[in-house]
């Protein structure tokens, strides 16, 4: 999964089917020092039928399969019924320690590290 360009038509192996026709992969990250992340991808209906088409991508933070991904995937899935917006690729990225991943570094991280345990 890591390093696959967004426009590829090859689906990475090793994924697990998730709600709404999505697939969840486990990605090991170099930046987060051996921590794994679940990345869930929902492709729009008709994705494989238009190989040259470019799709916008929406990234969902706190988007793990047990977090907010299913809610946003439901909105994306409603598009198949009401055509109210253009098709898109939805990518959910699981967060583990939210404040650590999304907040800027602090001068003295020790008080915050104690909370993570």
The helix-and-strand class reads alpha+beta
Largest sheet: 5 strands, mixed
Distance between the termini: 29 Å
Tally of DSSP helical segments: 3
Question: Could you describe the 3D structure shown?
Answer:
This protein is an alpha+beta fold and 117 residues long. The chain has a domain at 33-98. The protein has helices spanning 69-82, 98-102, 110-116, and strands at 16-17, 23-28, 36-42, 57-61, 89-93. It has a 5-stranded mixed beta sheet, with helices on one face. Helix 1 (69-82) links the parallel strand 4 and strand 5. The longest helix has 14 residues, at 69-82. It is elongated and about 50 Å long. It holds the Pfam family Esterase. Residues 1-22 are annotated as: Disordered. It comes from Qipengyuania qiaonensis. Residues 13-22 have a biased composition (Low complexity).
Summarize the structure.
This protein has 117 residues and is α+β, with helices and mostly antiparallel strands. Helix content is 22%, strand content 21%.
Q: Which terms would index this structure?
A:
3 helices, alpha+beta, 5-stranded mixed sheet, 22% helix, 5 strands, single chain
Task: Describe the protein's topology.
Elements: E1 16-17, E2 23-28, E3 36-42, E4 57-61, H1 69-82, E5 89-93, H2 98-102, H3 110-116
Parallel strand pairs: 4-5
Antiparallel strand pairs: 1-2, 2-3, 3-5
């Amino acid at each position: 999964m890591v390093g696959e360009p967004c426009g590829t038509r090859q689906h990475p192996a090793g994924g697990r089917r998730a709600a709404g026709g999505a697939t969840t992969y486990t990605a090991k990250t170099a930046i987060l020092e051996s921590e794994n992340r679940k990345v869930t991808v929902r492709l729009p209906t008709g994705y494989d039928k238009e190989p040259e088409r470019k799709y916008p991508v929406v990234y969902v933070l706190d988007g793990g399969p047990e977090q907010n991904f299913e809610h946003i995937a439901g909105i994306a899935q409603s598009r198949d019924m009401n055509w109210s917006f253009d098709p898109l690729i939805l990518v959910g990225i699981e967060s583990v320690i939210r404040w650590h991943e999304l907040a800027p570094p602090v001068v003295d991280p020790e008080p915050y590290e104690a909370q993570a345990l």
